[in-house]
Amino acid sequence: MTIFNNKPMSHIVNLMDIVDRTGRSFTAPSSVIARRKTLGEDAIRVLFDITQQHWHAEAKHPLWHGLTLNAVDGVVWHTQDTPENAEAFGKASNQHGECGYPQVRMVCLMELSSHLLRAR
C-alpha cells in the first residue's frame, strides 16, 4: 500500500476489487477505516507474512558469497503522554528520573538490494 501512499485508502481497496460480505464494493471511505479497526493486528501480521514470503521468493535477490544481504533498521516514536501509553510503552529515564513522552520502538530486518522487509 505504500506504493499508493498518495491515494486514499478507499481508492486502493477498490483497485483490489475487495468486496464486503454482501458482495458490494467498498466505496465509502469510512467503511474501509471502520473495518480496518475491527481486523486487529493478527490479520495484518498474517498478511505481512504471506506477502513478504511471496515477494522474496519472486525477487531473485543477488547473493554475496552465497548469502543475502540484510540490514537492521529501527525507529523511535513518541506517543501521547497518557497513563495507558506510559504503562504500555514506558518512558525514557536518566539520573533525575522519568522524563519525556512514552516511546514506541520498532526494529525491522530488510533485504538491502530491494529494501523489502523480511521481519518486524
In short:
This protein is α+β, with helices and mostly antiparallel strands. The chain has helices spanning 9-15, 29-39, 41-59, 83-89, and strands at 70-78, 91-94, 97-111, 117-119.
Please provide a written account of the structure.
The protein is α+β, with helices and mostly antiparallel strands. It has a domain at 61-120. It is 37% helix and 26% strand. Strands 1, 2, 3 and 4 form a four-stranded antiparallel sheet that branches. The longest helix is centred in the middle third of the chain and has 19 residues, at 41-59. The radius of gyration is 19 Å and the shape is flat. The model has no long low-confidence stretch (mean pLDDT 79).
Tags for this model:
37% helix; 120 residues; alpha+beta
Mean pLDDT across all residues, rounded? 79
What is the H-and-E element order? HHHEHEEE
Helix-strand makeup class: alpha+beta
Give the overall silhouette: flat
Strand content: 25-35%
How many helices? The count is: 4
Question: What topology emerges from the helices and strands here?
Answer:
Elements: H1 9-15, H2 29-39, H3 41-59, E1 70-78, H4 83-89, E2 91-94, E3 97-111, E4 117-119
Antiparallel strand pairs: 1-3, 2-3, 3-4
Helix pairs in contact: 1-2
